[in-house]
């Protein structure tokens, strides 16, 4: 599967939804994948207008499985909580 323009360095499977995973790359994006379809479904942090673009490399990403939100931390010092279904930035916590 291709999508990141630079090396992907984090991958996490969704805790309750089969065949869905999230990846973070050195291209400052977080991507959601459908493994069965072998397709990228959602991109967060890209230049296409996603709210809450990352100011640097994403250092961690994890699911908040009760709400299906994604929590990220970034080398820019911010933690971000996204609703990936709507590409909405729910919360930013600055260091």
Q: What would you say this structure looks like, in words?
A:
It is a single chain. With 95 residues, the protein is mainly β. It has a single domain, classed as Thrombin, subunit H. Helix content is 0%, strand content 52%. The protein contains no helices and eight strands. It has strands at residues 8-13, 20-25, 30-34, 39-44, 58-64, 69-74, 78-83, 88-94. It has a four-stranded antiparallel beta sheet with strand order 1-2-3-4, with no helix packed on it. Strand 1 and strand 2 (20-25) form a beta hairpin. The termini are far apart. The mean pLDDT is 87.
Task: Report strand order across the widest sheet.
Answer: 1-2-3-4
Name the beta content range.
over 45%
Structural class: mainly beta
The poorly predicted ranges are none
Encode the helix/strand succession as letters. Answer: EEEEEEEE
Please report the distance between the alpha carbons of the first and last residues: 34 Å
Counting structural domains, the number is 1
Tally of DSSP β-strands: 8
């Amino acid at each position: 599967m291709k999508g990141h323009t630079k090396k992907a360095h984090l991958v996490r499977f969704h805790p309750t939804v089969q065949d869905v995973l999230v990846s973070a790359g050195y291209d400052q994006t977080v991507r959601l994948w459908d493994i069965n379809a072998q397709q990228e479904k959602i991109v967060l942090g890209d230049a296409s207008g996603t709210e809450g673009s990352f100011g640097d490399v994403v250092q961690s990403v994890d699911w908040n499985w009760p709400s299906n939100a994604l929590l990220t931390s970034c080398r820019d010092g911010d933690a971000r909580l996204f609703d990936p279904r709507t590409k909405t930035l729910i919360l930013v916590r600055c260091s």
